[in-house]
Amino acid sequence: AQSVSQHNHHVILSEAASLELGCNYSYGGTVNLFWYVQYPGQHLQLLLKYFSGDPLVKGIKGFEAEFIKSKFSFNLRKPSVQWSDTAEYFCAVNAGNTGFQKLVFGTGTRLLVSP
Amino acid sequence: DAGVIQSPRHEVTEMGQEVTLRCKPISGHDYLFWYRQTMMRGLELLIYFNNNVPIDDSGMPEDRFSAKMPNASFSTLKIQPSEPRDSAVYFCASSLGLAGAETQYFGPGTRLLVL
Question: Using CB atoms and an 8 Å cut-off, which of residues 50-79 of chain B contact chain A?
Fold first, then answer.
């Protein structure tokens, strides 16, 4: 069964620091990849997604993620975080072996940005 | 569009009681998903529907959980009888087309506390 690993459960950064959150998945075939964000007290929102093409994907609010097929990774990055980026971030994968019908989420990374 | 609507937003109940969570997907979406979010297990897919038909309920924890989708605009997740370990945030999400190919839109969630 496919699985998604987010190794950093909690990350604490100061404003203006650079961010990189790791995401690795287990499936070797065709995958679609997502990052969702959950701000405090809110529901999950799509941050960015990768289906095909340029492996460097730009999302909202200055976030980007890079798909590295050889490493089964889809790490999320932001050059300079803001206090408003405090949230929980979820990586999700959808694989061809499920008919692309459902997502598998990682356990999430809680990011706290101190002002 | 109002987005995915869930009710109630908060539910506190006593062990042994029946709990019914409700979801209205985005109009026109043909996939509906129920997720459970806990600190220990993160975001887990419980069940999903396509065109009102349950496709995969392998994530439903046990027989105490049941889900229905009587029409395209309404779904319920029922827990009977409820137990303290069912305390979690339950999210409903919908998408147009295959989940992996299209963005899932999440509702605000129902925060359930079973005493």
Answer: 50, 55-56
Give, in order, the Cα–Cα distances in Å from B46 to each of A26, A40, A86, B32, B93.
Answer: 21, 23, 27, 11, 11
The confidence band for A115, taking pLDDT boundaries of 50, 70 and 90, is confident
Question: Rounded to an integer, what distance in angstroms lies between the CA atom of residue A13 and that of residue A2?
Answer: 31
The order of strands in the sheet holding B65-71 is B5-7, B19-24, B74-79, B65-71
Q: C-alpha dihedral over B45, B101, A22, A3, to 10 degrees? A: 40
**Among A8, A10, A101, A110, the residue to mutate for chain B (most B Cβ within 10 A):** A101
Chain A hits for B45, CB-CB cut-off 8 Å, are 102-105
Q: What is the pLDDT of residues A41-71, one digit of tens each?
A: 888 899 999 988 999 999 999 999 999 999 9
DSSP state of A65: E
